[in-house]
Design brief:
Radius of gyration: 21 Å
Number of domains: 2
Helix content: 25-40%
CATH topology of the largest domain: Dihydrodipicolinate Reductase, domain 2
Structural class: alpha/beta
Strand content: 25-35%
Shape: globular
CATH architecture of the largest domain: 2-Layer Sandwich
Largest sheet: 10 strands, mixed
Length: 414
């Protein structure tokens, strides 16, 4: 059931906090909800109005109230705005979400939920105490190929899930890390960020693995122990390449392989092995399932934009039309435990020696890639192994870190 026992009717009032980077995606989704008659776009928070004159002009013409201060908005819009969208920097997710819920608002915060498990626990506790929800923008949990595979897993179609392998090779140039002050950083202004593929760009796919590891609907499994290999090829302090092994509380073995220093963009792809069948999921295509009895089927993508469905689900939940959020804050805790455990095992991220990296000017951009990473990813994905197990010359083995009772991340990362 929705958090409120009162059935909500009519469009839901939304406030967007932010104007740049991923806030543009949230704006696009909110505009779509307005077009569908599901929402009203009532206010926006733009902290630096002088930097965004075109946005100021547009919102003014549309009659959308503009605030320059988040706290002022929270005070002024009480009793009117019902959902606050927070596509903000990672280190602000927890304080901004908590402040909104304590002021009486429901929250849709962009992924990842936060950088540390203690921040996620504080967000969960605030939601439970205030009766306001905190939904996390893991849009894959609103994607039909993800949800239908989850349903089959819950129904036992694949038997007991035993192993899941994730692989993604993405290309990012220096401009990606120059787009804001926290990109590629582990700590900013004394607050943890842990920015990288695992906790940001490709966080969806570690979360998918945890989601499919559980055979309980609307639930993701919890890491019992984690072994993390963290590296960077770009000139950043944080991680841009990782091989993380997770053993879940339910006994599923996950190997997660990612890089933002690739030669080409491939994936993400995910291989799920069960005792009665295997599934191969692709971010851009269908899900192929081969059963042990020799039969097979394909879950075809429905063509819906999952970013829109994140907002539709939150709206339907507020109205009492949906019984559950697709990615409530409590369900996402395991992702943060996996990230924190990987750092506890493998931090600080190690620089890949220059002889194994290609950095070159390509037009106006600086391109960075790890030599041989494409072939290495293929080998590791096929064999369900990490970079060190494959014998990569720059890789190193790490120790397991126990996360079975983990509740605080407190590493000194500078």
């Amino acid at each position: 059931m929705a958090l409120s026992d009162e059935k909500r009717v009519g469009p839901v009032s939304i406030c967007l906090v932010g104007v740049s980077n991923f806030a543009r995606s949230h704006k696009h989704s909110i505009d779509q909800m307005v077009e569908e008659g599901l929402a009203t776009f009532d206010c926006v928070v733009i902290r630096s109005p002088d930097k965004y004159p075109e946005a100021i002009e547009e919102y003014t013409e549309r009659g959308i109230t503009i605030y320059n201060d988040y706290e002022d908005m929270l005070e002024a819009e009480q009793g009117r705005v019902e959902l606050v969208a927070l596509p903000l920097s990672i280190q602000t997710h927890a304080p901004a979400s908590i402040a909104a819920m304590e002021a009486g608002y429901n929250v849709l915060v962009e992924k990842p939920p936060a950088a540390t498990v203690q921040d996620v626990d504080a967000m969960i506790a605030t939601s439970e105490r205030t009766g306001r929800f905190c939904d996390v923008g893991f849009q894959n949990q609103s994607k039909n190929t993800v949800r239908e595979l989850k349903r089959k897993i819950c129904d036992g179609a694949l038997g007991e899930v035993e192993r899941i392998t994730v692989m993604a090779e993405w290309v990012r140039d220096d401009g990606y890390y120059a787009r804001n002050a926290w990109a590629g950083q582990m700590v900013v202004d004394g607050r943890y960020v842990l920015d990288g593929p695992t906790n940001n760009a490709l966080a969806h796919y570690m979360f998918n693995a945890l989601y499919w590891s559980s055979q309980t609907w609307n639930h993701a499994d919890t890491p019992a122990r984690v072994k993390g290999e963290l590296y960077h090829a770009h000139p950043i302090p944080g991680e841009d390449t990782s091989a993380i092994r997770v053993e879940t509380a339910g006994g599923v073995d996950i190997v997660y392989l990612s890089t933002l220093a690739g030669w080409e963009t491939r994936g993400p792809i995910i291989h799920v092995e069960g005792t009665a069948g295997v599934a191969n999921w692709s971010h851009t295509g269908g899900t192929e399932i081969d059963y042990a009895d020799g039969s097979s089927e394909t879950i075809e993508p429905d063509g819906e934009r999952e970013h829109f469905e994140v907002f539709r689900n939150a709206i339907r939940y507020l109205r009492g039309e949906d019984d559950e959020l697709n990615a409530p804050i409590a369900m996402t805790r395991g992702l943060t435990v996996a990230v924190n455990g990987a750092y506890e095992s493998g931090a600080p991220p190690r620089a890949i020696p220059a002889e194994h990296v290609t950095r070159e000017q390509r037009g106006e951009k600086v391109f960075t890639a790890i030599n041989g990473i494409t072939e290495l990813l293929d080998e590791c994905y096929e064999n369900h192994i990490t970079y060190s197990q494959a014998g990569a010359p720059w890789a190193y083995e790490t120790e397991w870190f126990d996360t079975s009772t983990y509740s605080e991340f407190a590493m000194d990362l500078g």
